[in-house]
Amino acid sequence: MLLDDRKRKILEAIIEEYNATAEPVSSSKIATDYGLDYSPATIRNEMANLEEMGYLEQPHTSAGRIPSSKGYRLYVDNIMKEKNLTIKEKENIDAILQSDIAKFENLIKEASNILSRLTNYASIAMGPDMESCTVEEIKLVKLGHDKLMIVILADNGIVKESVVKCQEEIPEDNVEIFNRYLNYKLRGMNFREIYENINEYIEKELYQINTNIVPLMMELNHLLTEQNSNVYVDGTKNLLDLPELKKSETLQKFLNIIETKDVIKELLKNGYDGNINIYIGQETSFDDLKDFTIITYKQSIHDKEVGTIGIIGPKRMDYKKVIPTIKYLGEAIQQKINQGGEADGRK
Asked: Residue 2 pLDDT > 70, yes or no?
């Protein structure tokens, strides 16, 4: 429902004041401090109208009002003006992302750390889910006389690698046979399909060539099965001193969210690639989230999802600063991904 100009200005003032103080807002406070050309009586009547429309709530212990999830949604979508990041803030983000981070999952973790520091909320991130990916190439590289590096390139551009120590030296021609055979057998196959059937049609055939294929296959299996959709949470201490978490019930819900991570993981999987996805309070079906907001940004390459970054905080959040911060960081990461892919075909 669209609001007239007066209601919009009063709702904006209430949200700005509540965001700053965490205290219910009175009509006299708005009339005195926000330069609106309306009398306290007019503001009081409009606050009652906004409450009836569902944009404000009135705590039982106070005559003041606080924004509802619906009020925050209108504010985020139609009222607020985003703050521009300072040159210094952009430079800090760019400098960190310029470092040579070998694995995308490490980049996601670093981005989570940056978000926590810049927003003073808890940051959340999830690495790529590889189970639905397929193998684009497998490469074996001999390191010394008794070590092999195994590298798996997935079709979403993500690289997984590990070093395998063998019991004895593997001849170069054996390494080349393994290389050709693994690519012949596994290229284009789904990760789950491979690790569910790998011993049936690979190990027996290659074992006759060299028994060192056993540890190699074990490590290949490990790379395919290791947990990839890990949820990382950073900066939870930033929230523990907030007024919202002084209530034991709210604190317990927050701890449940952080400890189990199931709710966070579910929301991180949702949303649209390359866009800000905002979940405010009761907009989710999770009761534990009714006092919180989660904002996420999904990353992709070649139309494949490769990870998500975001933050979790109270509904009383500095949306004007947080949203452009996540946007800038998300776009910077996306640019780094694209540059990496262009550097050597699929880096």
From this structure: yes
Give the CA radius of gyration of the chain: 26
The pLDDT of residue 347 is above 60? no
pTM here is 0.75
In the prediction, which pLDDT does 247 show? Answer: 85
Of 225, 255, 272, the residue at which a domain comes to its end is 225
SS (H, E, C) 52-81: HCCCEECCCCCCCEEECHHHHHHHHHHHCC
* pLDDT (tens digit per residue) in 147-170: 888 888 877 666 677 888 877 777
Which contacts qualify for 114-118: CB closer than 8 Å, 24 or more apart? 114/329, 115/234, 115/235, 115/309, 115/310, 115/311, 115/325, 115/326, 115/329, 116/234, 116/235, 116/238, 116/311, 117/235, 118/89, 118/92, 118/93, 118/325, 118/329
- The strands making up 135-143's β-sheet, listed across from edge to edge, are 135-143, 147-154, 159-165
Q: What is the CATH number of the domain that holds 24?
A: 1.10.10.10
Return the number of other C-beta atoms located less than 10 Å from residue 178's C-beta. Answer: 23
Q: Which of 28, 80, 20 is nearest to 278 (CA)?
A: 80
Q: Are residues 236 and 125 in the same domain?
A: yes
CATH of the domain at 156: 3.30.390.60
